[in-house]
Every structure is written in structure tokens, then in C-alpha cells.
Amino acid sequence: MIAYDPTTNPLNNNEWSFPFLECIHILGFTLSIGTIALLDLRMLGLALQRHTSRELAKALAPWTLVGLAVMLISGPLIFSSDPNMYLRNLSFRFKMGALLLAIVYNYTIHRWAAMKEPAPAAGKLVSVVSLGLWISVVAGGLFIAFF
Amino acid sequence: MLLSLSQWIQSIGFLAAIRESALVYPVIMTTHLSCIAIFGGMILMTDMRLLGLALTKYTVTEVVTGLRPWKRVGFVIMVAMGLLLGGAEAEKYYHIPYFWIKMTFLALVGVHALIFRPAVYNKTEEIDKAPMIPARAKAAAVLSLVIWTGVLTMGRLIGYYEGNKSGDAPVAELRVK
Q1: Tens of pLDDT along A20-74?
Q2: Phi then psi dihedrals of residue B132, to 5 deg
Q3: CA distance to partner chain B, nearest, from residue A110 (Å)
Q4: Residue pair B64/B116 in contact by the 8 Å Cβ criterion
Q5: Whole-prediction pTM value?
Q6: Among the residues of B21-120, which ranges form H helices?
Q7: From the list A11, A51, A139, which residue is nearest B57 (CB)?
Q8: Which of A7, A127, B38, B168 could make a disulfide contact with A40, Cβ separation 3.0–4.6 Å?
């Protein structure tokens, strides 16, 4: 466990900073997961069909990155409010595993499938896995408060 | 009257069951939050397109009409989940000012649609032909961002009101101790 006294953290010393950070965190993942999901829908053949998934991937990539950056700055700050509680929390551990997988997946297999445009069936499989991974991350985050 | 209505709503069998279930409640919240991520992202990108900041290779028409059916699907799921969550704890919500502010923001979403659908969202081909994105389209985008951020913020704050008895945010409780 981390030897650190969370009561010294400014986050724990006023009423508004914690919920404020959570809202920033939600906005961040709305941008990152939202843009990734949009690309998934394109690869599933369900949205924005007039351009290729390669074009959409290129157009969305910077926005996904901005969203990820917001997520990955606000997330650790939230974590710092009570690190030992998070480290003990099963949902948090699950979320970190899923998040790591989802990010690696996004920049390897998912990116490859969007750019190279393989057979539609392969693209669809890649998209479904992507959606599943990111929803798992959201679920893991929400369940921290329950389990 | 609203209070007794809220008490009646939350006494309905399946809503009481949701409130008392350890698993169903967070699963519904997860669905609500996943919808925010997926469909909220579409709102963000539509607004960014109207501001000329994203998806500029796509016409406004493509983005607005292409995402519209998905946003509707998302909205229906989100509202359905919201009704379950709010209905399960109707009496508690009745006392939470953030809930009512959130409802006000949602009403503003409707007002926004009434004003800007005829002026912007149903005139996307006109906007695409214009040499510059018209100010009214940018105004629609900015107001949409403001209103939806308000909905999101107030929604999150509902979980912080009065001691978090539902187990909404033990993180916040730990903070208080």
C-alpha cells in the first residue's frame, strides 16, 4: 500500500473539486469513447457510409487523443484522492486491466482494421470487440462505487 | 402533490426491486453512462462540425442527418434508464435540487430543438452551400455544448446530495471522513 496521507490532498479539502474532476473525466471519455464508437459504427456499416473508415479514422484520431488525454489526467487525479481504497477495489483493478487492453487494442488491431479496411466481416468483429472493451471500462469505473 | 406522486412512483413493484437490488441498479447506471459516452460523443462531434473544428471533410448534412437516427436511439435508451433510476428513488430525487436543475436543462434541450431545428438542423444543405458556416449554426453548437454539459454536471451532482444513502458515491463519503 502507498504510504501517503490523502487528507493532505487538496481534492479532499473542498466540496467541489472531486465532483468537478469527475465531470471532466466523463467529458473526456465521452470524447474518446464517443469517437471510437463512431468509427466502430462506420466499420459495422451502420453510420457515415459515404466516406471510408480510413478517412473517418484519420478525421477522428486527434479528437480521440484529446479525449484520452483528458481522461488520463483527470483519472489519476481522482485516484490520488484515496489511492489505497482504489488499489483494494476489485472493480478498479478490473477497470485498469480493461483500460490497458482497450488502449493497446485501439492503437494496434483497431487502428489497423480502420486503416487497411480488411474484409467487412473482420472489420465488424474488430468493432464489436472494441465496443465491448470500452463498455467494460465504463462498467468497471461505475462499479467502483458498488463493489 | 409532486411529493406524493414521487412516493407512489417509487412504490411500484419493479422500481422498488431495482432500488433494493445490489446488481440491477449499477447495471442500469452503467448502461446510462455507456450511452453518454457513445451518443454524447456524437453530440460533441456534431457540435464540433457545426463550429468547423472537426470532420470538415464531411458535409454538415452528412454529419447531422447521418448521426440523427443514432442520437435518437441513444436518447431513448438514456431516458428509459434515467426513468428507471429516477423512478426507483423518486422520493429522494424529489428533494434534490440538482435533479430539478437537470430536468430544467433537459427542457432547454427541447427549447433548443424548437428554435434551431427549423433554423439550422433542417437547413443543413443551405449551410453546406454557404461560403462560411453561418453564425446561427455556431450559436446552435455552442448552446448545445453548454446545455448538455449542464445536464451531465447536474446528473453527476445528484449522486452527491445528502449523504449518498443509495451508495451512489462511497468515494465521496470516504472523502468526508
Answers
A1: 999 999 999 999 999 999 999 999 999 998 899 999 999 999 999 999 999 999 9
A2: -130, 155
A3: 17
A4: no
A5: 0.89
A6: 24-50, 60-88, 90-94, 97-116
A7: A51
A8: A127
